Amino acid sequence: MQSIVTKQNVNSESIMGAFAAKIDSAGFTTWIAPLQIEIDGCCLNLIAHNQFAADYVKSVYGNTLENIAADFLLNLNICVRSNNNVIQTANDNVICEYSPVKEKQNINKKTGFEKFIVSDENMFAVAACKKIALGDASFSQLFIHGSEGCGKTLLANCICGASDKKVVLMSGGQFVSDFARSLRDKTIFSFKDFCRNCDTFILDDVCALAGKRATTEEFIQLVMDLRNSGKNVVLTANVAPSALNGFDRRIQSLFASGLVVDMVAPNAYVRRSMLINAGVDVTVASELSKHILQNGHLVNGIINKIKTYEELMGEHVNMDVASHLLGDVLEKNKTPISMVKSMCEKMSVSYDEICGNSRTRRLTRARQIMMAALKNSTNLSLTEIGNVCGGRDHATVVYALSQIEKQKSMDLMLNAEIEEMVKLCK
After folding, report:
1. 336-425 placed in CATH 1.10.1750.10
2. Farthest-apart Cα atoms in the chain, separation
3. Which residues are CB-neighbours of 205 under 8 A, at least 6 positions away?
4. Are 297 and 277 in contact (CB under 8 A)?
5. Pairwise CA distance, residues 216 & 224, whole Å
6. Which CATH architecture has domain 2-89?
7. What's domain 112-262's architecture?
8. Is 0.70 topped by the overall pTM?
9. pLDDT tens per residue, range 203-237
10. pLDDT of amino acid 1
């Protein structure tokens, strides 16, 4: 009975409304709304303005549109027609040449990986990037994830600086804007060729593609084409593939199918080395490294501030000057979050992992130890402890503390670990 009602009420407005209800707003506005609707008997013709648009709608939205047409008892036909109703065979997307918008990149061909300070935690990630730069990697793609300021972008630039082969490096934001620009300027095929005409393609910050369905579909096809051609793909993100928001499971699975490595924020040794390499006094660098958050961006900001001060004031920066100059960024009083981050550094886990949803044995044990240390060294309530450890609820903290109490009597090393964490919190 429903089908009969649907058939009787079929018109272009109702069909377009059904499309809008099933397709995300961005995709509908960009691709579906510009289509002309023509109903010819039992056939629903969707008329695109050029061949590329027709092909794209078929590949990305074809199944969804066919199902909606079937609800109206119509067969779907996506085509291109000119004013005289002759199907167009020419493609106007090759009229112009695509040229990428240049982004400023700090790439030094002479140094390559020499400028990257390697820690024990990041040694594996650096080794994988060096293999990519040499062009003899047996894995593809390489997915690097870690919190902000851990060195992902610097590693991407190091690959460019160390590689003798053609490397295309784009930020996620640049890929999104250039893809949209190529559609507008009708240079999409030139854009596709530019991205594929390389030995290594690097996309820095995959998260910029989240929620942008058309751009994501284009990028996934790019990754598949590059992999099938035996070329290297390097991706970076703030989180692991399984924790990416705005991507479906199919895409998460694809990103996880290569080599996935995690990056840890710079520890005290790396922070000290960064400061010394930039010309900061050794004594000042040693002291500052103890009071700076684990964030490479923050360290670079401090270096710029010290250099600028010395240049403008003509005065060498000692610890007294640094304390006054950097009072806004140095950790003076420990906050619950800074305590957790200090414990993360000591236990070689990232703060994002502790706050994430992973329940691996290593992370679960680390969370429980941190909760016990916070309980023994602060006056925080159990709810507050749960909040700083990734938004855990009261019951989770109670369970964690009970598990620690059961294990303490049988595990002397656990007692020592908790005591060490307590000292970090004081």
Report:
1. yes
2. 87
3. 171, 172, 173, 236, 237, 238
4. no
5. 12
6. 2-Layer Sandwich (3.30)
7. 3-Layer(aba) Sandwich (3.40)
8. no
9. 999 999 988 888 999 999 999 989 888 899 999 99
10. 34
